[in-house]
Each structure stands twice: as C-alpha cells, then as structure tokens.
Amino acid sequence: MRYIILALVLSLFVSCSKDKEEVKDYVALNDEEITNYITENNLVAEKSPTGLYYVIDDEGTGVQPISTSNVTVAYKGYLTNGTVFDESTSFTRDLGDLILGWREGFTYFKEGGSGILLIPSHLAYGSRSFNVIPANSVLLFDINLISVN
C-alpha cells in the first residue's frame, strides 16, 4: 500500500513538472516574430508600451479617433506567413467592440490615414483560436481609416 501511495505522489510531481516545461512566453515569442517580420520586410515601425507595433504610411489629416470611436475602415488581415484571414473595403464599427490591438492602433491615425498594425496575440485573441486564426497568433492588418463617425 505504501508503494502505491508513493508511486501516486511521484507521478503527481512528474506530471506537474512536465506542465511547467510546456508553458511558453507568447509575449516574448510574438515580439520576436513581429521584429523578424519588420526586419524581413524592411518596415519602419513604432512600438507602443503595450507591445503593439504600427507603421504609419500616411498619418491622415482628419479627425483622430479615440479607443471607443465609431469608425469606418478598409483593411486586410493576415498572418506573418501571408495567410489572409479577412478583408473589407468598408467596415463600420465601434472600436470598443473590437480587439485591443484595433482599439489602440487606430488612435495613432487620423481620417484618411493608412498603415499597418502588427498585433501580438495578447492584444488580439490570446490563447483562443478564432475562425481560421490559430491560438497565440500575431495578426497583421493593412488599414485605411476612412472616417470617424
């Protein structure tokens, strides 16, 4: 009986240590993936304190949204491997209803502005898969801020 209890306790410790080994720091992995993408594509990007990267091709000249503004945008969303998962030529929504990367990212542009948002998974869908987007994915968006409504 003693050996059975000892075996159960030891297997518990072994299984716990395996779980700890498999934990990955996706914030660091995503940051590395984004910086590699920026280098490979010769982009000039800024990094915000939250870990969002953004490229401003055209800042725009109109109204600048806040994180809860209703906006109309054109965008193409894709992964760092080039797989396109969504796009629209005219999408209208409150930024407050969208992923954190969009809420923050669009505040760096004004109406008429365009650029790229490079969003780490913790500002997107995190450890959850969403439609064709795998868990812990970096999301890239070519964006054009058409209007702040």
Task: Tell me the layout of helices and strands.
Elements: H1 2-22, H2 26-40, E1 46-47, E2 53-58, E3 70-78, E4 84-94, H3 100-105, E5 114-119, E6 139-148
Written overview of the protein:
- The structure is a single chain.
- This protein is an alpha+beta fold.
- 28% of the residues lie in helices and 30% in strands.
- It has 3 helices and 6 strands; from the N terminus they run H-H-E-E-E-E-H-E-E.
- The chain has helices at 2-22, 26-40, 100-105; strands at 46-47, 53-58, 70-78, 84-94, 114-119, 139-148.
- Strand 1 (46-47) and strand 2 (53-58) form a beta hairpin.
Summarize the structure.
By secondary structure, this protein is α+β, with helices and mostly antiparallel strands.
Order of helices and strands: HHEEEEHEE
Structural class: alpha+beta
Q: How many strand segments?
A: 6
End-to-end C-alpha gap: 72 Å
How confident is the prediction overall: mean pLDDT?
A: 89
Q: What is the helix tally?
A: 3
In spatial order, strands of the major sheet run 1-2-5-6-3-4
**What composes the largest sheet?**
6 strands, antiparallel
Please tell me what the overall shape is: globular
Compute the CA-based radius of gyration: 20 Å
Beta content comes to: 25-35%
pLDDT < 50 runs, ≥5 residues: 1-21
Residue share in helices? 25-40%
Question: What keywords describe this structure?
Answer:
149 residues; alpha+beta; 6-stranded antiparallel sheet; 3 helices; 6 strands; 28% helix; disordered N terminus
